[in-house]
């Protein structure tokens, strides 16, 4: 399994960009925003949870992982 990008915001915008490029006719600002909103709500249903999401606090603290294993840093 894979994802196109690790950035969920970019992934959502890519979905909206993909659909709005193929829309025929002029859109008003109001209908464009409504269509973008509906596309984002539709994309949200297909999001999957990150593998290893329970490790996020460690990643935020700066702990390094290689191939899913925590790397011990040697004292310098």
Strand order of the largest sheet: 1-2
Question: What structural class do you assign from the helix and strand content?
Answer: mainly alpha
What's the count of strands? 2
How many helices? 3
- Main beta sheet: 2 strands, antiparallel
Provide the β-strand percentage band. 5-15%
Shape: rod-shaped
Helical residue percent band = 40-55%
How many domain regions? Answer: 1
Q: What is the element string, with H for helices and E for strands?
A: HHHEE
Radius of gyration: 19 Å
Q: Give average pLDDT, whole number.
A: 74
Which helices and strands, and how do they pair?
Blueprint: H1 8-21, H2 29-44, H3 56-61, E1 65-66, E2 69-70
Antiparallel strand pairs: 1-2
Helix pairs in contact: 1-2
Walk me through this protein's architecture.
This protein starts with 7 loop residues before the first helix and ends in a 6-residue tail after the last strand. With 76 residues, the protein is mainly α. The protein is built from three helices and two strands; from the N terminus they run H-H-H-E-E. Strand 1 and strand 2 form a beta hairpin. It has one domain. The longest helix is centred in the middle third of the chain and has 16 residues, at 29-44. A two-stranded antiparallel ribbon has the order 1-2.
Features:
47% helix; IS256 family transposase; 5% strand; 3 helices; mainly alpha; 76 residues
What is this entry, summarized?
The chain has helices spanning 8-21, 29-44, 56-61, and strands at 65-66, 69-70. The chain has 76 residues and is mostly helical. Helix 1 packs across helix 2 (29-44).
């Amino acid at each position: 399994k894979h994802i196109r990008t690790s950035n969920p915001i970019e992934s959502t915008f890519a979905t909206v960009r993909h659909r709005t490029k193929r829309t025929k006719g002029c859109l008003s600002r109001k209908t464009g925003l409504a269509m973008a909103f509906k596309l984002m709500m539709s994309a949200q249903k297909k999001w999957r949870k990150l593998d290893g999401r329970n490790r996020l606090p460690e990643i935020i603290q700066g702990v390094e992982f290689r191939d899913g294993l925590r790397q011990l840093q040697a004292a310098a």
